[in-house]
Every structure is written in C-alpha cells, then in structure tokens.
Amino acid sequence: MYLEVLMMFLAAGLIAAAALVVGGLLGPKKPGEVKLSAYESGVPAVGSARERFPVHFYLVAMVFIIFDLETAFFYPLAVKFQAAPQFLFANAVIFVAILAVGYVYLLRKGVLNWK
Amino acid sequence: MTDLVQWAALAPLLALAGAFVNGLFGRSLKEPAPGIVGSVAVGAGFVLSLIAFFGVAGTGEAVRVGFGDFLTAGSFTLALGFHLDQLSVLMMLIITGVGFLIHVYSIGYMHGDPGYSRYFAQLNLFVASMLVLVMADSFVLMFVGWEGVGVCSFLLIGFWYRDLANASAGRKAFIVNRVGDVGFLLAMFLTFKVFGSLDIQTVSAMAPTMLYGSAVLTGIGLLYLLAAAGKSAQLPLHVWLPDAMAGPTPVSALIHAATMVTAGVYLIARTSAVYAVAPGALATVAWVGVLTALVAAIAAVGQTDIKRILAYSTISQVGFMIAAVGAGAYWAGIFHVLTHAFFKALLFLGAGSVIHALGGEQDVRKMGGLGRRMKVTGTTALIATLAIAGVPFLSGFFSKDAIVVATFTSGVLGGVGGEVLYALLMITAGITAFYMFRWYYLVFAGEERLERAVSDKVHESPSVMTVPLVILAVGSVLVGYLGLPAFLADNRIAAWLGHATAAGEFSHPSVATEWLLLLASVLVAFIGLALGYWVYVVGKGAMARRLGNTPLAGASRGAFGVDALYKALFVDTGSGTAEAVTLLDREVVDRGLVGLSGVVPLIGGLLRRWQSGQVRAYAFAMLLGAAGLLAAVALVGVLK
Amino acid sequence: MSFPGVLDIDWNVMAPAVSLLITAIVALVFGLSARDSRGPAAVALIGVLTAGIFAVAHLFSGNESAASFGLRYLGDVPATALTLVILLGTAMAILVSWDQLERGGMGQPEYYPLMLLSALGAVVMASAGDLITLILGLEIMSLPAYALSAWRTRDRQSEEAGMKYFLLGAFGSAMLIYGTALLYGASGSFVYGAVAAALQGGNLTLLATAGGALVLAGLGFKAALAPFHQWAPDVYTGAPTVVVTFMSVVIKVGAFAALLRIAATVFPALQPWLLTALAVIVALTLVVGNFTALMQRGLKRMLAYSSVAHAGYLGLALLAANHGGVAAAAFYLSVYALMNAGAFAVLTLVTDASDHGDDLERFAGLGRTRPGLAAAMAVFMLSLGGIPLLGGFTGKVLVFQATIDAGHVWLAVLGIATSVVALFYYFRVIAYMYFRESSHAPHTFRSTPARVAIAVALVGTVLLGILPGWWHTLLSVGPRFLAGY
Known about the structure:
heterotrimer, B: mainly alpha, two-stranded antiparallel ribbon, 2 strands, C: mainly alpha, 19 helices, 1% strand
C-alpha cells in the first residue's frame, strides 16, 4: 500500500544523486580565488556571524509571520466557503478583528517605528 | 433521658471554645482569667459527661448523636457522629474530671509564665481532641481526635521551646507517633476493605460473622496494635515518653499519664469485637504489654530524675493495661486506666508541687525529707505511692489484681502462655512496689540532701494546687471499689463495660484459687516495699555508720552485710540491669528510630543529586522515561 | 464536503472560554494607556468573575450533556467544575499579583492578558473532547506561561526558568503530538470516544498503546509526574512567586483535567500494561516528590516538590478514573487549588520584593509578629499534609478510597505511607513559625488583595474539610463522563 511512497522517496534520492554526479562529471573546472571563497548570500565573509542584531529585527520578522499566516488561513477558507457561508464569514471577521487588535497594539507599542 | 445525653456532644465544643477564647483573646486577659476560662470549659464538660453517664446508666442503651452524612463516594458513606455508650462516657468522665483538676492546678503551677494563655489554649484544645477521640463513632472521626491529641502533645512538650532539648523532645514524640499513625491509617483502610464501613458499631456488629482467625483480621489487629503502641508508648515505640517529660508537669500528668497515653488501650477495647475474632493479634497485644511493663519497670529503678521515674512507671503501667486488653479482659484494662488516671496524675502533680517548691530541681538525689515540710504534698504522694504499689484496699490493688488474674485465667493466651505472662506481671508488680518506695523515700522521707540555696525557699504549694491533690488522693483510695473481685462482691465496672466490649474467654478457677491469687498479689506488693525499705532505710543506716568510720563499723559490716549486698545487688547488678535496659533503650531502640529518620534524608539526598539543574539532563530524563514506556510497548509486542 | 458537527455551538458551554478571551483582549488594549498594572488587574478580575458566573450558571443548569463542535468541546460536570477551579486559581493569582507586581518592578501591562490566555488554554484542555482541541489548549496554556516565568526580566534565575520551561515544554509538547499522531494512525479519529470505539477488537492496539504512552508522557510533563517532573522545582524556584501561584494551580489542573478524561476513555481501550506503567510512574512520583521535599530549606522549592507529590496523589485517581476517581480528583484539585495558592500567597508576603529570602528562617517567629498570617499558613500546611477536618484530608480519603475500589491496594498503602512522610516537611514550617525566635523582626509586606485571596483560600480549605459533601455530590452527579461517543 505504501509502496508508492517508498518509490517516490527512491526517485527523489536518485534524481538528487544524479544531478550531483552528472554535474561533477560534465561541469568545467576553472578554480579561482573568488570561486573558492565561502559564499554567504552575496556578502563577503568578513568577521564573525555571531554578531548582535537589533532585537527590532526579530520583532518585525514576527509581525510579518503573523500577518503572513493570516493570509495562509484565508486560502482554505476561500476554498470551502460555500459549505457554510455565514459561519465561515463570521469566523473570518472574528479572526481579522483579533488580529486588528494586535495591529493596534503593536502600533501603540511603536514596534513599526524604526529609529 | 436520651435527649439529655445528647447534650454531652457539646463537651468537646466547650473545650474548643475555651481554646479559641484563650488563643485569640488570651493575651489581653489578666493572669488568672485564661486559667479560669480553661477550667470552666472543662468543668462544664465534666457536668455534661456526668449527665451522659447517668443517662446511659438509666437506660442501659447507647446513644448516638449524628451530624449527618459527611461524605458519600460510590460504595462509601461516611456519617459523622458521637457514640455515647458505657465505654465512652466512662472515658469522658476520666478526661474531663481529671482534666478539670489539672486545669485548676495549672492556674497555680503556671503562675507568671509568659505563655500563660497559650498554655491553657493548648490544654483546652487537647481536651477537646481527646473527647473527640473517645466519643467518635467512626474510625475517621477517631483519627481526627487521634491526630489532634498528637499535635497538642507535640505543642505542649515543646511548650518551653526556647530550650532546644524541649523542642527536640517534642519532635521525637512527633516522629515516633507518626510510625503509629501509619499503623492506624493502614488499619483503617484495611478495615474498610474488609468490612466496607468505617463505622465502629457496624464493624463491631459484622466482626463475629467474619472468618475466625483469618490473616487479614489478624493484620488489622496488629496494625491497630502498632497505632496503640505509638500513642501509648509501648515497646518498641516507647522511647518518646521519657523525653516528653520536658513539658510542663501538669501536661505530663494529663497527657502523658492520665489520658492520651491510654488512648491505645481505649482503641483496642473499642475494637474488641475485631480482636475477638483475631486471637493471634490479641495474644500479641498481651505479650507486648507484659514485656513493656517489665522492661519499663526495671528501667524506672535506675532513674534519678523525679519525673523520669514516673515516666517509666507510666510506660510500665500502660503495659499492664495493654496486657489486660490483650488477655481479653477489656474491662480490667479500662479499670486500670481509671485508677491509674487518679494515682498517676496525683504522683505527677505531687512531683510538680515539689519541683515548684524547689525552684526547678528534678534530681531525687538532691531531695529528701520533703514530706516533713510539705505536708499535703507528702501525704497525698504517699497515698498514691501505696496505690500504685498495689497495697490492699487502695485502688491500684484492685485493678492490678484484676489484670494479673485475667492473664492467669485467659483462654486466649494458651495454657502455658498465660501462666508465663502471669509470672512476669507478678515480678513487674514487685519491682513496681520497689521503685515507688525508692521514689517516695528519696523525695519525701529520709535525710534532707537539699542544696542550701534551695533549702530556704521550700514551701508548701498554694491551695489552688493542693486542693486538686487532695481530691485525687480521695479518688485514688475509692475508685478501686468499683471493681472488686467478682468472687467477693458485684464487680460493677466489669458489668458496666460488658455492654460496650466483646466478652473475653476465661476459665473460672475455684474460690480457693481466687483467694490464693489475691494473696499472692498482696504478698508481691509487700515484698517489693519491704525490699525497698531494706535497701534504702536499713542499708542507708549501715552505710552511714561505715562512713562515720566508728569502731562498730567492721562488726556491723560483718553482722549485717547489707552494704555489700546493697552494692552487689543494687548498685552493681540492679542498677547495672537498669543501666543496661536504659542503655539498650537509648542506644538501640532510640538510635534505631533516629537512624530511621537518618535513612529518610539519605534517600532525599540521592534524589536531590538527580536534580542537577541542567536542561539537557532533564530532557534526557524525560527521554528515558518516554523511551522506557515505548520500550515496554515494543517488549509487549514482541512477547505477543 | 460537510463539517460534521462543527457548526453546532452551545454558547453556554463556550461562554467561560469566550469571556476569558474577550477580557484578555480588552485588558491588553486597556493596558496600553493604564498608568500601572492595577487597572488591567481589575479588568482581568472582572473577566474571570464573569467567566465564573457563566460556568456556575451552566453547572447548575443541569444540562450535563451539552457540547460544542460535535463533542470536541464538552460542557459536562467535570469540565465545568474544573473550569471553575481554574478560574478560582486565576482569580487568586490575580489578587496575589495585584500589589506584588508593582512592588517587584514587574508591572508591564501584558502580565494579566497573558495570564488570562494561559487560563483560557487550561479551560480548553479541561473541556477538550478530542486530541486536536487538547493540543490547542495545551499550547494556548503553555506559551504565555513560558513568558510569565521569565517575567522578572532583569533576574537571571527568572530568565533561566523561562528558558528551561520553554525548552523542556517544547519537548513535552512534541511527545504529546507524536502520541496523538500514533493514536490517530491506529484509530482514524481524534475524538476520544471514537478512538476508544475504533480500537475495540482492532489489531492496532499496540500502535495505539505506544501513542497512549507518548500522550501520557507529554501530559505527565505538564502535570509534573516523575520522571517528567524535573523542570518543576527549577522553574518554581526561578519564576516570580506570583507566577508560580498561578502555574502551580492552573497548569496542574489543566493537565490533570485532560489526563483524567483520557484515562477514563482512551486508556481502557489500550493494552492494560499501560495502566501498570502509569502505576509505576505514580509510585515513583509519590516517593520522589515527598522525599525530595523533605530535604529542602527553601520554602518555594519545598512547595515545588510538594506539588510534585500532590501530582502523585492525583495520579492515584487517574488509575481509578472509572471507579469514582474523576470526582475524587476533581475534589482534590479544588482543595489543592485553594490550599496551594493560599500557601504561595503567604509566601509572597513574607519574602523580599525580589522573591529572595524564602528560607525557613524567614518564617521564624511569624507566629508572634503576624499571628493571622501564621495561622493561615499553619492551616494550609496542615491541609497539604492531610490532617483531618481540613480539605486536604478529605481529598486524600476520596482518592485513596477510589484507588482501593479500583484494586490498587499497594498503591494506596504507598500513598498513605508517603503522606505520613509529607507531614514532616509541612510541620517543619509550623515549627519554625511557632517554635523559633527570629534574631530580626521578619519584615513582611502588607497587601489587602493578597489578604482577600488568603481569606478565600482559608475559608475554602476549612469548608471543604468540614462540609465536603455538597461539592463532592455535585461532582459525582451527571453521566459518568461525557466522552464523545
């Protein structure tokens, strides 16, 4: 019954392995100083990565995730909306209202003011 | 009449009210007031107990005062109430009667103590708890009283808590009593498991229908015995009582002589129906009682503290009571509770009067001749001494005789067993007479060995203290006539308590044998007293002459030889034995219990080491726990 | 596509949870403009009382089989009664925090909203009729609690407590979720009753039992059952005492409410050895909690281990869930909430503003300097120790009785024996208060709201000790358990 799943795992592994092997065999090899350096998102690797980031950074990231999830929540709601329109609409309104309170709260707290 | 009897339910409430008044407002009351409040609360309880007594006597019927259902849980219904029958009203009379006298005495004894009102609050609380203990109609309510008296005892032993030794004595009593409490709780749950009820009357009614001598009934009996041994200071849990003398002397008189330590006797008498079908447990009870009586009596000989002698004596006397109930003579045990309450309370209050007069001195070697300067205390103490020694026509004689005869004729103990116990008890009775003579002689008679500074201050105690002594002395003479030997006259107390306890099995020896046993009891008492006289009065004279180094000394040494005998028998052997017993007591039993309390921290220490404070260690422990559960799943799966 | 049962909402059942949620939001907004934390405290207290009124109204409406979302959110007697206990504990914690937050410099306005949300989570756990609702409740309860235990932000111990609690809590949650997945895999359902029904006669009970074991481990973490208890003493010691007052009551009630329901419904359908394993866990908890408590000098830590020990006694009731154990545990939890919160409330008044100074020495001589406080503490200690005529004793009697009824006599014996050990450490507090002189006058803090909390706890403890019948009867009425069949 789960054979398909197993086969999918195998196929995924094979494709990944094949890509590496084929790339390694066929690709041209012209090493240079820049190419051999560690690649960190386009930023030159200078100093330690264990720097202190402003805590504000995390706050903004958290706020982003929360409102991102709001969108994620609306997708299934939209798909199944016809099953119980009033109920789901009320649901969505309550959900947005709670998030709105959160939004007011973080505005008042000055989370979005980047000094 | 039944309506009137029900008023007795107020007795513990009155004592409780007294405790509340003294506890909450005591500090703003001037000195005698808390004492009067306390005494009146208990005195009123005595009046109510009297009413209940005559009520029960009039109808011969027990009265139940119910407070409704406390708890219903599935198959389990617990009603709270008081059961007033012949046994409980008698105990109420003892508690409130002797308690009242001791409260009055305390007004004088505790004079000027900074904790005056606290003292009476705790003493009243004790009386309330003790009344609940004896009046309870279920084991649960009895346990309420049982714990209550334990807490009060703990508080009162450590009453002068600024002295570290007193506080640790209180703790010792507490720890040892816990061991007994485990017995009580386990017995209670086993009782519920077997009988499906915790109502004492229901259990008593069902007990005869149970399988005679079955293991579970014996188990219940042994567990109740463990509880009784803890509370009543029986082997091997007796070690707390001598130390408990650290409390104020009236407390020793009330709690550690007259009432609380007899709770174990009461418990066994109350559950007599269960013991009636558990003969093995009953015989064990008898053996525990007899051995305790003997060991404690020997130990009493070697003591020098005026109160510690009495403490060992109390252990020994309670041993007699336990032996009596173990022989199935429940009435004799309770009878001895009654007489002992009078003469032992009297002895303690007398000792308190002496300590009071001497400004705190408790060493009998630094006393002597006090009877000449404290007439009332001396005379009443003499009566009590003779009563406990078993001199005929005083109360102690009748109750002790009833006990030894009961062990001789008991059907529970088996042929030889009963006779061995009888012999041991007779020896104990002789030793009792001996050490009580020693006690009295060293304190009240003979030459004065007081320190000069103390000697000038010696005075008779105020009348608030001596009047209770006189009343107790009268009681010590008279109460014995309630229980004359059955072949001489009507034994009122046996008939009275027969309504409330199971009947023991006894053989009925001929009247001639009865007379013989009676005479043996008389003889033993006098032998003990005579031995004491010989050693302390005669011997002391010889020794004095030798010390005087007169020319007659050698002749007298040869002629009397008392010196050597005294030395060999009592200084070496006698006190040697006493010392050995005390040593055994202190080193083995005491240490053992302390060791037990040492094991507890050890386990705790090991567990504490486990608590390292590191998250990864905790996570690992959780992982191990979950893995253990899952491993068990896998194991079960494989085994299938 | 339909939503089976999802649309049926009984607002009577939901009202307590909804009021808590609304109050939390209101308190949060209100806190933005409030001058100190007392305003939000008042809002929170009103909200809790409102929720309590709804819960009482529902409890006495006699509608024991009410439920929402197709038996996923239940309003039966145990759920409503335990909701009340949670609300009671929350109200006490609010009263205790009232003056302490300002005193300790912890007056950030988010405190009360977080507390209300955590309480909401506990209520959801108590009412959960299926495993998903349970997980939701658990997380709603736990996340604010992690934040609250690190509430004293400048204190390293408090930070450590929060971190430890969070890390181990995540571990515990993971176990619960994994167990839920296995149970679902074996039965194809999340609703307790349906899980049990599906497993009857099935051949997947081994898988389901593994799931049950993991659920037990995950909830055992929150309930502080050994060997999942080790976070409790450290977190209790580090977290602010006012927060511990809340946690020691509300989180324990929430966890046991969920455990009880699962033990009564799902566990009987699993392989019986799981109950044996639970018995071992309970025995271990009894021994570890009581004996370690014996060794503590700090009162806060002692109470932490004592709460582990009480988890053991409640664990006994789990084993007897279908023999009156549910009513016994609910009763025990009611008393526990009162006496434990009371003891912590006294503790907050005796220790420093920084929560330091909880050593027993601090209690020396309290009997004379603060007789009322000392008397209350004595009653709480006696009740925790199980002295008769106080609630703690009645609770123990009920639990032991249920345990014996269920046939676990040896566990009852162990419980009795360890409860005797427990008296030592409770009595030590009393001995210090009354038998010790302190060299310095103990400086104590005075707070009227805290005094009200102590008074409520005192009255409740004594009342449930003397007149336990009415409450226990109430807990025993109704269907055995609404399990979601």
